[in-house]
Specification:
The protein has 296 residues and is an alpha/beta fold. It is 44% helix and 17% strand. Strands 1-2-4-3-5-6-7-8 form an eight-stranded mixed β-sheet, with helices on both faces.
């Protein structure tokens, strides 16, 4: 197994945020911009988008706790170690330590869910939020259908207890990642071998597998409780929100994304792109153009 894949032109730092080390890559100058990856990836997923944005932004690419080369705290029975609130606290702390505050935030998949919670818990920290190929966790879990359970089977598999997903994924991490990612890509799309090998490298660490399972267990427990509390209180995202989604993925097929996000935010716009789930890797030029039309 080779070492970590690095993005040319980015400097790498490991920042201790309240005891959890967050791995990040930084480039550019201008308005601060934090990019957060999804499952089962790491910051490398932004390799085709981030260099362009770094032309006039200070771009920070961070690995979420438990993923990539960030720290991997032991999961806890209460689900707090990998709650979106804890993961968001890491990223807010990272940006404070880097002196990049306030900032704009782009998140894909799990990273978008972390971004959603970060904005709610840190009013004024984020001036603009872009969410790629998700609707809020609360909406997903309160509207479970046969189609959703089929498309998002991994939500339920990874949340299973008793060490079941950890043992099965650990037996062949490369098979798991390829078998999960492949069907979520748009027609005819693929992930470059070097990037896929880096994702596999990270998931060859049993701690990454355990952390990512804990992430999904938290989504169905403590995250849902936090989201219900926030929603019931009437709190909504106050900054402008851009939602992008793929026409070939379940978000595009199963929801009316803008209608859903308008229940959770006060200023929403967005559009579909002709992709599957992994927008920044499938259509980087289109994603970059959409982001440039939104970001400061």
């Amino acid at each position: 197994m080779t070492g970590p894949l690095r993005l040319p032109g980015f400097s790498y730092r490991r920042v201790d945020v309240d005891g959890t080390v967050i791995n990040c890559a930084i480039a550019g100058s201008g308005p601060p911009l934090l990019l957060l990856h999804g499952y089962p990836q790491n910051h490398i997923m932004w390799r085709h988008v981030a260099p362009d944005l770094a032309g006039d932004h200070t771009v920070v690419l961070a690995d979420l706790r438990g993923y990539g080369d960030s720290g991997k705290p032991d999961p806890d029975p209460a689900g707090l170690a990998y709650s979106k609130r804890s993961m968001a606290r890491d990223q807010a702390g990272l940006m404070r330590q880097l002196g990049l505050w306030p900032f704009q935030l782009i998140g894909h998949d799990r990273g978008a869910r972390v971004g959603h919670r970060l904005v709610l818990d840190n009013p004024g920290a984020v001036s603009k939020l872009a969410v790629l190929d998700i609707v809020p966790t609360r909406h997903v879990l309160q509207n479970v259908t046969r189609a959703m359970a089929t498309a998002y089977y991994h939500w339920f598999f990874l949340a299973t207890g008793h060490g079941i997903p950890e043992r099965l994924i650990g037996a062949d991490p490369a098979f798991w990642l390829r078998s999960l990612i492949g069907p979520l890509l748009g027609a005819g799309e693929s992930i470059e071998p070097a990037a896929m090998e880096d994702y596999i490298r990270c998931f060859s660490d049993p701690r990454t597998i355990a952390a990512s399972c804990a992430d999904y267990r938290s989504a169905a427990s403590t995250d849902l409780a936090d989201d219900d509390e926030t929603f019931t209180s009437g709190q909504r995202i106050g900054c402008p929100v851009l939602a992008l989604w793929g026409t070939q993925g379940f978000v595009g097929r199963g929801y009316e994304p803008l209608d859903v996000w308008e229940l959770y935010a006060t200023d929403v716009r967005g559009t579909a792109l002709p992709t599957g789930h992994f927008l920044p890797e499938e259509a980087p030029a289109e994603v970059t153009a959409a982001l440039r039309g939104f970001l400061d």
